[in-house]
Write a structure and sequence with these properties.
single chain, 512 residues, alpha+beta, Actin, Chain A, domain 4, six-stranded mixed beta sheet, five-stranded mixed beta sheet, 11 helices, 24 strands
Amino acid sequence: MTQKKKIAVGIDLGTTYSVVAYMNDSGRPETIPNAEGDLLTPSLVLLDGNEAIVGKEAAKAMSTDLANIAESPKRQVGHRVYDKVIDGRRYPPEAFQAWIIKKVFHDAKAKVGSFENAVVTVPAYFDEVRRKSTQDAGYIAGLNVIDIINEPTSAAVAYGFKQGFLDESGSAVKKTTLLVYDLGGGTFDVTVMEINGKNFTTLATDGDYKLGGRDWDERIVDFVAEDFIRAYGVDPREYQDSLGRLLRDSQDAKETLSTRDKTTIACNCADKSHKTTLTRSQFEELTIDLVERTAFTTRETIKACNKKWQDIDHILIVGGSTRMPMIRQMLLDESGQEPNTSVSPDEAVAQGAAIRAGILLAEKSKRALQPKIKNVNSHSLGVVAKDVETGEPRTVIIIPRNTPLPVVGKRTFKTHRDSQESILVQIVEGESAAPQHCSQVGSCSIWDIPENMPVGTPIEVSFGYQENGRLQITVQVGNHNPFKQEIQRPNSMTQEQLDSWRGYISADSQSN
């Protein structure tokens, strides 16, 4: 009997839209349409009583039921709760992410057959806490997340396959330096990669997980709302249904201005109606600071890997927000070269994740396959220690940002009193010497340390940072056996809570 081929699936869990792709029978990545026949599924969740409605139908309800819709839950990942109360209840962001995954997971299975494993993408600038939360969302949805891959890296892999940088064996025809500019609906990443033979090596990455197309939409919302206030003295942003319609129409206006020089946005509120005209040049003036934020980050990322614009062979733009002419013009002005628009900005990330899933399945079955992917960490990772001179807490970096992964980093500290009974390791991410200005990853406590240890006994803290940006901690006191530690994350759910949410979401009567 012929063994059924395992399906390799990649999921781009986006802020605005989510996309699923798989490796087809020809060994090529292919995007899977959802139950509605669309390649993109809106990342929106409408809670209607005990029913969670995800995707297009939730998007339709923006103008009538905004109070019950979770928008952009990806921006809240890493927080304990989503910042919006829905029907009197607070939900963890992982729950909304899980509902979205469940929808696209279910639809994909109906199209290509059963599967349990998938590679899920995250912004390169996501820290360890947000990566853990994304993996937890997959677990809640009933999916086995076999890897987390950075979105720009994923797009670069798909681009290499599609644009002929790679030959049939998966090797680069020549050494290529690629800049990936990824501006999605809610997050921004920029990554410089080198493709050489079968090696995809990230040289540097940076970004902003709270910058994306939604911020451009909100500038239009404010522009129209202020025009409405001048006309009627009423602020439509204070009315949920009016705000929902205005958000939807502002997104449409942004898309229109990518192809036309002006558009008109209608606003209806408090039995009053008003039309506002917005030109492309006005829109660009309203958002010039947002464009400059991405330009600054892009320049800094190139500097971080000791490159200049002339060292960049290709500029790959992905994410739906890169369709705005102002973005392409900025990149042309900065680099002197036209950005490459030959691949779908919406599908490249999911397709690259599907290729990554294929690589993992091939490695598991000991078949040689295409590229080897090497990422870097986007944030410095360290611990909080006491400064011996000032007695003040400070950040001690163990793994600097843009270090190639996987990596093991070690630092040695000392006990500060005789017969010390416990050790607290506080883990932080960030570049500041002040721990309070860094992101708090979590902590681990060690109690079973040997008795009667003298002051000054060495404590070696070892961080094992995996390629997917997940962390393992080992602590060794003196010459005794090391302790492998589980991180206690203040904003993460316990296993019991994860199992509870998994049961709850599995049991719901979701209608898409």
